[in-house]
Design brief:
single chain; about 400 residues; mainly alpha; Na+/H+ antiporter like fold
Length: about 400
């Protein structure tokens, strides 16, 4: 990506942010529409989607910033639910999609399983934005965001194992179990260690520029180092973000004055990464418009929704008789709010050339992402209001007099 293209994306992102806020539209929808417009009317502008750009450059700050905002105590309380939805849930969703694509689209088992694994993870960017605007219940917000972070890691691990099979590795249960353990446990441990080392250094300074730099090293260093030793970079960045957010920003390691600078920097980094990702999605959708309406793409959209239904409702039913019971309205939001985004596209583009269905998988992945953004994303606020999950706004005068936190 050239400097001029990046500058153009920044200008468009600013304009879209202003317009989307005034029209009360999801920011991601506006960005994708802008990407389509740039591709159709931008003349010689060439916005190319690269797997390295999305996976290695844009994904780490998205994972890290989301984890940075999660508080450990509520996350720990909801962990049985979110971990169940993320790990067995990703497996269930992936199996439903893979079997469906194998039977209906006649894809080979390996190609169908690769698609099932990469498209099973959710991306809650548009949903969380709607939550903030409509003042949705805190628990629902935690469930959606934390499940998305965990299932990103689960999907990336499953995809990596299947790619090794596509590249000639023997699909033995013992070796796959060892690889799974290495990627999951190793990724979490490595992310914790890298973040811990960065915080120890940060505790020796009160210069917010150094503190920001060290958190950047924690985010990218944990991700890239984990990927280099065949661990899960997604889980490493997740662990690093949790450590920095819950330990580093407590005041012991990152200075009180530096805390706001660090949070502001990562909020902007996520804004920039999301802007680039969604504009690139729109540009690619415009260039592949003729191929997005294939039977395989339509089947993929339907199967992804069915897979999400099969994962959410039965797994949430396991907690019906416990204190972790998930409100049925929350389950509806978890199903319809299971949007797809950057990770799915990055993994689709990274499929080995030896997989015969690679081209069809990329088209199907973009079709699912487009449907989730334009259909599910645009109807999310409506669904929240219909389910009566949005709190009523207070008058401006009341909000000024209200105690902090209300």
């Amino acid at each position: 990506m050239s400097v001029s293209q990046l500058g153009l994306i920044l200008i468009v992102a600013c304009a879209v942010a202003i317009i989307s806020r005034r029209l009360r539209l999801p920011y991601s929808v506006g960005l994708v529409a802008a990407g389509v417009g740039l591709a159709l009317f931008g003349g010689s502008i060439d916005l190319t989607v690269s797997p390295d750009l999305i996976y290695s450059v844009l994904l780490p700050p998205l994972i890290f910033e989301a984890a940075l905002q999660l508080k450990w105590r509520p996350l720990q309380h909801e962990l049985p639910v979110t971990a169940t939805l993320a790990f067995p849930g990703v497996l269930l969703t992936g199996v439903v999609i893979a079997c469906g694509m194998h039977v209906t689209a006649r894809w080979g088992w390996l190609g169908a399983m690769l698609f099932g694994s990469l498209i099973a993870a959710t991306d809650p960017v548009s949903v969380v934005a709607a939550f903030k605007e409509l003042k949705v219940d805190t628990r629902l917000n935690i469930l959606v965001e934390s499940e998305s972070l965990l299932n990103d890691g689960a999907a990336a691990v499953a995809f990596a194992i299947l790619v090794s099979v596509a590249n000639g590795a023997e699909p033995q249960i013992s070796s796959m179990a060892g690889s799974l353990l290495w990627m999951v446990v190793g990724g979490l441990a490595l992310g914790t260690l890298v973040a811990g080392a960065a915080l120890l250094i940060a505790s020796r300074t009160e210069d917010h520029r150094v503190e920001i730099t060290l958190t950047t090293i924690a985010a990218y260093g944990s991700f890239l180092l984990a990927e280099n030793v065949h661990m899960s970079g997604v889980l490493a960045a997740l662990a690093a973000g949790l450590v920095v957010g819950n330990v580093g920003l407590s005041g012991r390691y990152i200075s009180v004055s530096g805390r706001e600078h660090v949070l502001s920097f990562w909020e902007y980094a996520a804004f920039l990464a999301n802007s680039v990702v969604f504009i690139l999605i729109g540009a690619h959708e415009a260039s592949q418009a003729d191929h997005l309406f294939t039977l395989a793409a339509a089947l993929a959209v339907v199967l992804v929704i069915i897979g999400r239904v099969v994962a959410v409702y039965p797994l949430c039913a396991l907690f019906t008789r416990s204190s972790l019971k998930v409100d049925i309205r929350h389950q509806h939001v978890l199903v319809w709010g299971g949007l797809r985004g950057a990770l799915a596209l990055a993994l689709a583009l990274a499929i080995p050339e030896s997989v015969p269905e690679k081209g069809a998988i990329i088209i199907a992945a973009f079709a699912v992402v487009a449907f989730s953004i334009f259909v599910q994303g645009l109807t999310m606020s409506w669904l929240i209001k219909v389910l009566r999950l949005a709190r009523k706004f207070k008058p401006a005068s009341a909000s000024i007099k209200a105690p902090e936190g209300q």
